[in-house]
Design goal:
Blueprint (H helix, E strand, L loop, with lengths): L4 H10 L6 H20 L32 H6 L4 E2 L2 E2 L7
Helix pairs in contact: 1-2
Length: 95
Amino acid sequence: MSISIKDVEHVAKLARLELKDEEKNQFTKQLNAILQYAEKLNELDTENIEPTTHVLKLTNVMREDETRDSLPLEKVFHNAPEEDEGQIKVPAVLE
């Protein structure tokens, strides 16, 4: 697979970019070099390789869920800017 100048022009049009002729040639060469490098990966034998999402073996460290009592409303409202009918009242952020 290779990229042509027409492909670069099409993508530039979609991105609403104005490219000079020298930029079109440069991007065409660069994109083709990237595709050639990616095609080298097809030469590798990955038949017995397990798919991974990360190169290192990572696991999430999570605590068990446990129910706890909530803070009393007096403590919650103590740090709130304003309280109205049992709700925290804050300044409007949308007009």
